[in-house]
Write a structure and sequence with these properties.
The protein is an alpha/beta fold. The protein has eight helices and seven strands; from the N terminus they run βαβαβαβαβαβαααβ. The protein is globular. The mean pLDDT is about 95. The protein binds nicotinamide-adenine-dinucleotide (NAD).
């Protein structure tokens, strides 16, 4: 049984594929989970489902691009015991060739995926430093390390999230706060179902040594591990959850 010093988790993008599984996983480990996302009713609905299984959760609408709201929502959390585990899962994606990448989409994606992650990490990070304990877990992607075609702004934000995570790890480690990123290949969630057609799936399956996409529950297992006491000395790590993709070259049958 994994030990958990952490008591309360705060999840952005918490009703999405990965965020919801992370919420379930952490709630089943005994943490109170705060599910935040754009839609209050969806956050409440997930919180009710988690409560119905006997766990502790509540929902809060939060757009991570709104700095004032990030500060207000996290100040309320501080009154309730504060954030021990932060999972930043909120993100958006739009595929397009780099030379035709629309500027307005570039700015929108940077704002949500990178600046939004920064807002939440900065505000929650200050609370964690005050407490002398914290686990920051950012959702990155292998797209932050290699240039898959047509990922444009999304890939650039994930490279930025990796560096933000390393900066947090370097500067907050002495305060008992760790920061690590999880960098998956495609996961079967609404995000990927929107952007991958049958042809994309075939190409990816051929390139993935494990020959299937990750399941969000598998990513949630890594979140729970990084939040646990067993991971206390893991800091500044980018955990590739890629079925061996980044380790392999040409795959022959
Ligand atoms: N699905 C994949 O294949 C895949 C692969 C690698 C990395 N990731 C990363 O994992 C994380 C979760 O992805 P997912 O597959 O669960 O995606 P998803 O689309 O299912 O969930 C993302 C959630 O973020 C929320 N969101 C969007 N904009 C927001 C904003 N401004 N403020 C707050 N919330 C906002 C959405 O409402 C949604 O619920 C993301 O960071 C993504 O980049 C996903």
């Amino acid at each position: 049984m994994t030990n958990m010093t952490a008591k309360r988790a705060f999840i952005t993008g918490g009703t999405g594929g990965v965020g919801a599984c992370a919420a379930w996983g952490l709630a089943r480990k005994g943490l109170h989970v705060v599910i935040t996302d754009l839609d209050q009713e969806k956050c409440d609905q997930l919180a009710r489902e988690i409560q119905a299984e006997g766990h502790s959760a509540h929902g809060v609408a939060l757009d991570v691009t709104n700095r004032a709201d990030v500060e207000t929502v996290l100040a309320k959390e501080a009154e309730q015991g504060g954030v021990d585990v932060l999972v930043t899962s909120a993100a958006i994606v739009k595929p397009a060739p780099i030379l035709d990448f629309p500027v307005e989409d570039w700015e929108r994606i940077l704002n949500v995926n990178l600046t939004g992650t920064f807002h939440v990490c900065q505000v929650a990070g200050k609370q964690m430093v005050e407490k002398g304990f914290g686990r920051i877990i950012t959702m990155s992607s292998v797209n932050g390390q290699i240039a898959n075609s047509f990922r444009g702004a999304y890939s650039c934000t994930k490279g930025g999230v990796d560096m933000l995570t390393k900066l947090l790890a370097a500067e907050l480690g002495k305060h008992g706060v760790t920061a690590n990123a999880i960098a998956p290949t495609p996961i079967d969630t609404p995000m990927i179902q929107k952007v991958h057609g049958p042809k994309d799936r075939e190409v990816w399956h051929n390139q993935l040594p494990i020959k299937r996409y990750a399941q969000p529950e598998e990513v949630a297992s890594a979140v729970c591990y990084l939040a646990s006491d067993d991971a206390a000395y893991i800091n500044g790590h980018i955990l590739n959850m890629d079925g061996g993709f980044m380790a392999s070259g040409i795959l022959l049958d």
